Amino acid sequence: MHRLPPVLRACAALVLAYLLLLAVARAGLLPAALQGAKAVGIMGILAAGAGLGFGLAPGWVAPLLLLPWAMDALLRSALPAWTWPLGLLLLLLVFGGGLFTRVPLYHSNRAAWAALLGLCPASLLRFADLGAGFGGPLAHLARNRPDGFFLGVEASPFPFLVAWLRTLPLRGNCAVRLGSLWALDLAGYDVVYAFLSPAPMPRLWEKARREMRPGTLLVSNTFEIPGVTPEARIPLPGRRDACLYLYRM
Ligand SMILES: C[S@@+](CC[C@H](N)C(=O)[O-])C[C@H]1O[C@@H](n2cnc3c(N)ncnc32)[C@H](O)[C@@H]1O
């Protein structure tokens, strides 16, 4: 269980809590005083306990306590039942690719685009954006460096579609693929850019060290590789921790 991504462990904790409560109620062991709204609260407590037992961080306790209340409110609402799977599908289309990597969707700012452009070598250039999102950095670089080649890999279908459409006029030197960043061989790239989250950084570093050629550059926006000193940091405006970390292979 501890090896599963946190989101699956949270789902397992909720299902377990629900089944436990159901079994107790079916067996006639749930006192009348604890039925109704109180049972929803009990489910939250059971789910939070199970979640901690499954190794979830304390930050999951509040969502697990509150989710049964939210589900109860939704089930009582007048909206037709098909709206919930539809909502789930839309969420998966936008955020699904980052669910297991534990990477949400947010965007590099224009200062990061400009800094990346400055980092691109003057000679032959192949650049990869791992988790391309809506393709902002990719389009900016491809437009300003027609002599280079720019590839974005994006796992969530909706951001992929936006990035693909956005870079359509730049097809001569820019491509966007729907798929996992873990499947891309980094050997062919001079600059690899990632704006992900703290969770995948150790694995990304292992991959980069295995695949990237000596002298090439791994650039991480905001998230440091634990235990590795970057060659340089480029501060960015905006959030206090915003900066580009440069790791030379
Ligand atoms: C923080 S956004 C960065 C977007 C873009 N690179 C930028 O800087 O504006 C991270 C993106 O990585 C995508 N992502 C997360 N895990 C991924 C994976 N395993 N493979 C490909 N893309 C992934 C997410 O869907 C999200 O769109």
If you had to describe this structure to a student in words, what would you say it looks like?
This protein has a seven-stranded mixed β-sheet with strand order 3-2-1-4-5-7-6. The model has no long low-confidence stretch (mean pLDDT 91). The chain contains eight helices and seven strands, in the order αααααβαβαββαβββ. β1, α6 and β2 form a beta-alpha-beta unit. The protein has two domains: 6-78, no CATH class; 110-248, Vaccinia Virus protein VP39 (Rossmann fold), CATH 3.40.50. It is of the alpha/beta class and 249 residues long. α1 crosses α2, α2 packs antiparallel against α3 (61-76) and α5 crosses α6. The chain binds S-adenosylmethionine (SAM). S-adenosylmethionine (SAM) binds next to α6 and β2. The chain crosses the membrane at residues 43-67, 79-99.
How is the secondary structure organized here?
Elements: H1 6-26, H2 37-53, H3 61-76, H4 83-95, H5 110-119, E1 126-130, H6 136-144, E2 149-154, H7 157-166, E3 174-178, E4 191-194, H8 201-211, E5 217-221, E6 232-235, E7 243-248
Parallel strand pairs: 1-2, 1-4, 2-3, 4-5
Antiparallel strand pairs: 5-7, 6-7
Bound molecules: S-adenosylmethionine.
S-adenosylmethionine binds at residues 97-98, 101, 103, 105-108, 129, 131-133, 136-137, 153-156, 159, 180-182, 195-196.
